[in-house]
Write a structure and sequence with these properties.
Layout lengths: L8 H7 L4 E4 L3 E7 L11 E2 L3 E8 L1 E6 L2 E6 L2 E5 L4 E7 L4 E7 L4 H10 L1 H9 L2 E3 L5 H15 L7 H27 L3 H16 L6 H7 L4 H12 L3 H19 L4 H7 L5 H12 L3 H6 L3
Antiparallel strand pairs: 1-2, 2-9, 3-8, 4-7, 4-9, 5-6, 5-8, 7-10
């Protein structure tokens, strides 16, 4: 089934900002980026692009594919295509840089990232990183050079230059992403939580039984839920339901898929069953959620 992403308000909120440099609609750079007052980001949103934000001032709280963050400047967030971003709080003084790579250009860059297994895993499993003040001169030079290259309209190699310069940024940022990832795996519980959530992220559209994940981890469902409850405050079933609901909310808000299509996408037997499942957890029907700003 083809999934179409509608040009909803998040694109208006981003693209209409000042200090914008672009190469068509494929690469867009913002020098003074802010999300304050952007209503589209008040709920989970699924992107069809690669979205890189470096915050130089302020703080933000939220999740990327249910991986929570609470960060103060300087920090970086990388949202890959089909990941779900949710800002729960953005400070009034939030500012920084933003690079948007469309679904047409991102596939040019992502294979280069994925060839570097450690780099790819660090960004995929931990899509945000706390930077340090010593790294900021490099970050500023990167965006300065990127802007200059994007303005070279007569240079037939500028797309390649953008691609490889952006890889240089990822190489620079890699230790910061890896540092947090390593910290989450230092304990047995932390390692198990990371393994479980990774499995859920890969399978929740088709597998909503905790026993499936326990079997993959060679554990009993009871023990798995006990560990998760102790480490995170949520059982295995709670985690699975949360992933399903995050995807459902994002699809309702950021695509023009019908509710019936979303029902099939998430492997529900009927639209009625999906509607009851959604309302029991959110308090309103899928249709009401799509039409409102809940």
């Amino acid at each position: 089934m083809e999934r179409k992403v509608t040009p909803l308000s998040w694109q208006t909120d981003i693209i209409n900002q000042a200090n914008r440099t672009s190469i068509g609609a494929d690469i867009i750079l913002f020098d003074n980026f802010t999300l304050v007052g952007a209503p589209a980001f008040n709920f989970p949103f699924k992107f069809d692009m690669l979205f890189l934000v470096v915050c130089t001032k302020g703080n933000a709280i939220g999740t990327v594919d249910f991986q929570p963050y609470n960060l103060s400047a300087p920090f970086a967030i990388i949202v890959r295509p089909n990941q779900i971003l949710h800002y729960e709080h953005i400070s009034e003084d939030f500012a920084g840089y933003c690079l948007v790579l469309s679904h047409r250009f991102a596939p040019e860059l992502l294979p280069l990232i994925d060839k570097q297994a450690a780099l790819s895993a660090a960004i995929q499993e931990n899509p945000y990183a706390q930077l340090d003040r010593e790294s900021m001169p490099f970050v500023k030079k990167y965006f300065f050079m990127l802007k200059k290259i994007m303005a070279m309209a007569d240079n037939p190699c500028r797309l390649e230059m953008v691609k490889h310069l952006t890889m240089l940024f990822f190489y620079m940022a890699y230790p910061f992403f890896q540092k947090h990832l390593d910290a989450t795996k230092q304990t047995r519980q932390g390692f198990l939580v990371e393994q479980f959530t990774s499995l859920v992220r890969e399978n929740y559209r088709h597998e909503r039984d905790a026993a499936f994940y326990a079997d993959k981890l060679n554990l009993t469902p009871k023990y798995l839920s006990q560990v998760l409850k102790s480490a995170t405050g949520k059982s295995a079933s709670d985690w699975i339901d949360d992933f399903v609901m995050l995807e459902a909310k994002a699809l309702l808000k950021s695509t023009n898929m019908t509710i019936q299509q979303i029902c099939y996408e998430l492997n529900f037997p009927t639209q009625s069953f999906f509607g009851k499942y959604f309302k029991r957890r959110v308090g309103v029907s899928p249709k009401m959620y799509r039409e409102g700003n809940l």
